[in-house]
Amino acid sequence: MRVLVTGGLGFIGSHLVRRLLAEPDLEVVNLDALTYAGNLANLADCASDAHYRWERVSVADRAAVRTVFARYQPFDAVMHLAAESHVDRSIQSGLPFVETNVMGTAVLLEAAREYRAGRFVQVSTDEVYGSLGSSGRFSESSPLNPNSPYSASKAGGDLLALAAYRTYGQDVVVTRCSNNYGPYQFPEKLIPLWVTNGMEDKPWPLYGDGAQVRDWIHVADHVEGLWRVLQHGRSGEIYNLGARNERSNREVAATLLAMMGLLPSTLVPVADRPGHDRRYAIDPSKAESELGWRPQHNWEPALAETVAWYRTHEEWWRAIKSGAYREYYREQYRTLATVRAEPQENP
Ligand code: NAD
Ligand code: TYD
Question: Burial, 113: exposed, middle or buried (Cβ in 10 Å; 0-12, 13-18, 19+)?
Answer without folding.
Answer: middle
